[in-house]
Amino acid sequence: MTTHRVSRFFTKLGCAAVCALLMTFAAPARGQPTEAFRAMNRPAKPFKIVSNIYYVGASDIASYLIVTPKGAILLEGGFVETAPQIVNNVRELGFAVENVKILLTSHAHIDHVGGLAELKRLSGATLVATAPEAEMLKRGGKGDFQYGDNLLFPAVDVDRVVGDGDTVELGGVVLTAHLTPGHTKGSTTWTMSVVDGGVTRQVVFMASLSTPGYDVVNNPAYPNLGKDILRSVETLRTLPCDVYLAPHGYAFALDAKRAKLGTEPNPFIDPNGYRAALDDAEKDIRRKLVAAEKKAAEKK
Ligand SMILES: [Zn+2]
């Protein structure tokens, strides 16, 4: 199947189907392997989301700059091809990539960590991740439980490994790591608070909860996958949230919210959207678990 047809599929099916398509069309690569990926990585204008948090990613592949008096934190590195866009976006906002002191990610998939090696080289920042993601980052994506060796990226060493509840601090900003596994084994949700117009707001950088094409039951590579996703949804429900953000723009209605910027209240303040996103994720995994268990029972 040609990349053109892949692209048409992508347009029809939306981002949620992209990972499933990749399973079919991916070839060992270190950059964007398909047209579908390129469609998510179009250059986008950077902007302020709320307080000291800025969007510096591509059209759908998100990246966040958190500015502090002691330098900046960058969350998500995009594809290899996103890194120069992130560098330009940071510059366009009046900051410099050399002032990034800490690099973070939600999970070690090609579309969120492909650019980290280059961003680390340019900034000299400390790369922080959970143990399972640190392992995948070191291996450049090799041996991924879902994608095998098909979605490789430049390997990069993690400088500090964090666990559930650990914090990362810079210039008065504190980010807390919450383990929310399922999409990957070390998927991480990061939280922080900001003061916006004199009001404290809770920000949740929600990990991906999708399982496109995954075997959610009896998966020898990840036996607890289904249970982990359900537990991660429960964890996320306990987090106070005013602003929710995610590794992909579609997961938090980036385009619609950006279009409303400048109106009051800030369109990114969306606690109801957060709860709806969690409800959708739970419905999705429960539906898949029921279907998979039914199929397994039929086979017996
Ligand atoms: Zn992913």
What does it look like?
With 300 residues, the chain is of the alpha/beta class. The chain has a single domain (3-299), classed as 4-Layer Sandwich (Metallo-beta-lactamase, Chain A), CATH 3.60.15.10. Helices cover 34% and strands 20% of the residues. It is built from ten helices and twelve strands. The chain has helices spanning 3-13, 18-25, 35-40, 83-92, 110-113, 116-123, 131-138, 225-237, 254-259, 271-299, and strands at residues 47-50, 53-55, 64-68, 71-75, 100-104, 126-130, 160-162, 167-170, 173-179, 188-196, 199-205, 243-245. Helix 8 runs antiparallel to helix 10 (271-299). It is globular and about 60 Å long. Zinc ion binds at residues 107, 109, 183, 208.
Indicate the CATH class.
Answer: Alpha Beta
Strand runs, count:
12
Number of helices: 10
Overall 3D form: globular
What's the overall average pLDDT, rounded?
90
Radius of gyration: 18 Å
Give the domain tally. 1
Distance between the termini: 35 Å
Uncertain regions spanning at least 5 consecutive residues:
1-28
Main β sheet profile: 7 strands, mixed
In CATH, the architecture is 4-Layer Sandwich
Helical fraction equals 25-40%
Give the structural class.
alpha/beta
How do the strands of the widest beta sheet line up side by side? 1-2-3-4-5-6-7
* Helix and strand element order: HHHEEEEHEHHEHEEEEEHEHH
CATH homology group: Ribonuclease Z/Hydroxyacylglutathione hydrolase-like
Characteristics of this structure?
about 300 residues, binds zinc ion, 10 helices, alpha/beta, disordered N terminus, seven-stranded mixed sheet, Metallo-beta-lactamase, Chain A
